[in-house]
TrEMBL record:
Native organism: Saccharibacillus endophyticus
Residues in Aminoacyl-transfer RNA synthetases class-II family profile domain copies: 111-314
Protein name in the entry: Phenylalanine--tRNA ligase alpha subunit
Catalytic activity: tRNA(Phe) + L-phenylalanine + ATP = L-phenylalanyl-tRNA(Phe) + AMP + diphosphate + H(+)
Record note on cofactor: Binds 2 magnesium ions per tetramer.
């Protein structure tokens, strides 16, 4: 039995030398170590051994099994290492290949114009204020000197939600909210960008929802010339330093006097610049100041309201307001940063 065990060990180790891959190695393991393998077969004959011989042969059988095991283990490790090396070699990544291009989004042209206008006014010491889109009748109209029966309310057809709540028709109510929050303190210097809503039929120049930027300044001795200088600087920053503005008398219930402002604008291909209306403005009406807690004897102010779409249409040469809202990628991708 001793010889058979020694022989088995020698045979297995010899056989191992010719094993070429993991599969053959596994077959070899089954052949020698498996349940029906050669070692098991030999050990089955142990019953016929004497009591002295049994532990000696048992020990030897263990040694043989361990020797074959560790030889198989060593081979196995070698095969695994070789397999890993093969994989590493075949799966190398060429880091010099050009990458896949990611499509990049664009900032919406209206957002871009709003941000640009904000930057210009922040540069003049203004801060940004915001207000709700669902507004009270009081803030949207009453406190702006538009009492319930005022005919000028018809200028802005409104979406009412209840008798007292509506979608704001203008950003001017943020003036009122700002004055309330500042409770009589000066200086007030804010701009208020936001969406507004009117019951208009959509066409090339009208949209039931659009954007405005409101401006409000209150302090001591604020004059019409301050308003004009501010607007001139603003328009020159936005459209170029040779831009001119002109003010035409107009009417808004919340300003007195009121004006509309035109800028010089050269259409593509035109030789001479023409005038285009871009905003409404004026000196804050004393009643408006008073209703929101500012003494008109002590303080004065100016206000203006800019139509964002109008500005964006001029700036980018867009001829239909609906382009801003249709989400057509062919339009929007033109505003992608290069
Ligand atoms: N809220 C006005 C509108 O929607 C625009 C406007 C005009 C705002 C004059 C003002 C202003 O603050 O002073 O037509």
């Amino acid at each position: 039995m001793r010889e058979r065990l020694e022989q088995l060990k020698a045979e297995a180790l010899e056989h191992l030398k010719s094993v070429a891959d993991a599969k053959q190695l596994d077959e070899l393991r089954v052949k020698y170590q498996g349940k029906k393998g050669k070692l098991t077969e030999i050990l089955r004959g142990m019953g016929g051994l004497s009591a002295e011989e049994r532990p000696v042969i048992g020990q030897l059988a263990n040694d043989v099994r361990d020797a074959i095991d560790s030889a198989i283990g060593a081979h196995n490790e070698r095969f695994e290492r070789e397999e890993t090396e093969r994989r590493l070699a075949s799966e190398t990544i060429d880091v010099t290949l050009p990458g896949r291009k990611m499509p990049r989004g664009a900032v919406h042209p209206l957002t871009r114009v709003i941000e640009e206008i904000e930057q210009i006014f922040i540069g003049m010491g203004y801060r940004i204020a915001e207000g709700p889109e669902v507004e009270t009748d009081y803030h949207n109209f009453e406190a702006l000197n538009l009492p319930k029966d005022h005919p000028a309310r018809d200028m802005q057809d409104s979406f009412y939600i209840t008798e007292d709540l509506l979608m704001r028709t203008q950003t001017s109510p943020v003036q009122v909210r700002t004055m309330e929050a500042m409770s009589g303190e000066v200086p007030v210097k804010v701009i208020c960008p936001g969406k507004v809503y009117r019951r208009d039929d959509d066409d090339a120049t009208h949209s039931f929802q659009f954007n405005q930027i409101e401006g409000l300044v209150i302090g001591k001795n604020i004059r019409m010339s301050d308003l004009k200088g501010t607007l001139l600087h603003f328009m020159q920053e936005l459209f170029g330093s040779d831009t001119q503005i002109r003010m035409r008398p107009s009417f808004f219930p919340f300003t007195e006097p009121s004006a509309e402002v035109d800028v010089t604008y050269k259409k593509k291909g035109a030789t001479e610049a023409g005038w285009l209306e871009v905003l409404g403005c004026g000196m804050v009406h004393p009643r408006v100041l008073e209703m929101s807690g500012y003494d008109p004897e002590k303080y004065s102010g100016f206000a203006f309201g800019i139509g964002v779409e109008r500005i964006a249409m001029l700036k980018y040469g867009v001829d239909d307001i609906r382009h801003f809202y249709n989400n057509d990628e062919r339009f929007l991708e033109q505003f992608a940063r290069q």
